[in-house]
Design a protein that fits this description.
Helix content: 40-55%
Number of helices: 9
Largest sheet: 3 strands, parallel
Distance between the termini: 30 Å
Strand content: 5-15%
Order of helices and strands: HHHHEHHEHEHEHE
Number of strands: 5
Length: 221
C-alpha cells in the first residue's frame, strides 16, 4: 500500500520501493513510513496528501477482503505460524498479538491469515489483541495510533498488563517475538525480553544487540 501510495503521488504506476527503504517502511506508523518516502522520492508533496491516497487504497482493498471479493490468501502467514501457536496453546502459554497497524488495515489481515490457516476466529484464539487506533478525518473521530505505535512501548505494555494481566513484578515472565527493529525496541522499552525472528529488518535496523535470542523461524523460537 505504501508503494502504491507513492506511485499515485508521483504519477508513475511503475514506481517500486528500494531495498534500502525496508528499515524505514516496516514496523513504524503509517505517517512515519510516508514521511520517509516523501523525503526521498517527492519532497514537494505533503504527508497529508499521501495519507489521503493511502487510506483510499487501504479502505478499498480491505473492504474487498472483508466482503470475500479480495485476492484469496492476500496475506501470507509466517512459516510455521499455525504449529507455533498451537504448541503455545498446548503448553497453556498466554498469547497476545501486537501490531502497529491501524485497526481498519490490521484486522482484515489478521482475519485473512486465520482463514488461510483454517484456525477459526482469532478473537477466540488469542488471549489479547491490540492494534494501533483509527485515523481521524473530516466527520470522523480518531484514536491514538499514529504517535504511540512501535517503537513506543505502550502497545506491548498494554497487551501484557491489561490484556494478559501481567503486572510489572512479573515482566520477566513475558517474552516478545519480533521481526522488525521498531518492534524490538518497543518490547525492550516495555521492560520485556525479546526473541528476534528472521525475515524482517532487525539486522538492517541495527537492533540485533537488544535481543535475548535470535531464531530463524517461529518454531525454532
Amino acid at each position: 500500500v505504501i508503494e502504491r501510495t507513492m506511485a499515485r503521488l508521483l504519477g508513475d504506476e511503475t514506481f517500486r520501493l528500494e531495498p534500502a527503504d525496508e528499515p524505514h517502511v516496516s514496523g513504524h506508523s503509517v505517517s512515519e513510513h510516508l514521511q520517509h518516502c516523501i523525503r526521498k522520492y517527492c519532497p514537494k508533496k505533503s504527508v497529508e496528501e499521501a495519507r489521503q491516497h493511502y487510506f483510499d487504497i487501504t479502505r478499498h482493498e480491505m473492504s474487498e477482503i472483508m466482503a470475500g471479493r479480495g485476492r484469496k490468501n492476500a496475506f501470507t502467514p509466517s512459516p510455521g505460524l499455525k504449529d507455533f501457536l498451537l504448541t503455545l496453546k498446548k503448553h497453556k502459554i498466554q498469547i497476545g498479538l501486537v501490531t502497529s497497524g491501524l485497526y481498519e488495515k490490521a484486522w482484515p489481515e489478521i482475519l485473512n491469515a486465520f482463514q488461510t490457516l483454517d484456525m477459526g476466529d482469532p478473537l477466540e484464539f488469542y488471549d489479547a489483541i491490540i492494534t494501533a487506533g483509527t485515523p481521524f478525518g473530516q466527520a470522523q473521530a480518531g484514536t491514538l495510533g499514529e504517535l504511540e505505535p512501535k517503537p513506543h512501548p505502550w502497545l506491548y505494555a498494554e497487551t501484557a498488563r491489561v490484556g494478559l494481566g501481567m503486572d510489572a513484578a512479573k515482566r520477566h515472565k513475558v517474552i516478545g517475538l519480533e521481526d522488525s527493529g521498531a518492534g524490538v525496541v518497543s518490547i525492550r522499552l516495555a521492560g520485556f525480553a525479546c526473541i528476534g525472528i528472521g525475515g524482517g529488518n532487525i539486522v538492517k535496523s541495527g537492533s540485533r544487540p537488544l535481543l535475548l535470542r535470535e531464531c530463524p523461524t517461529l518454531m525454532d523460537a
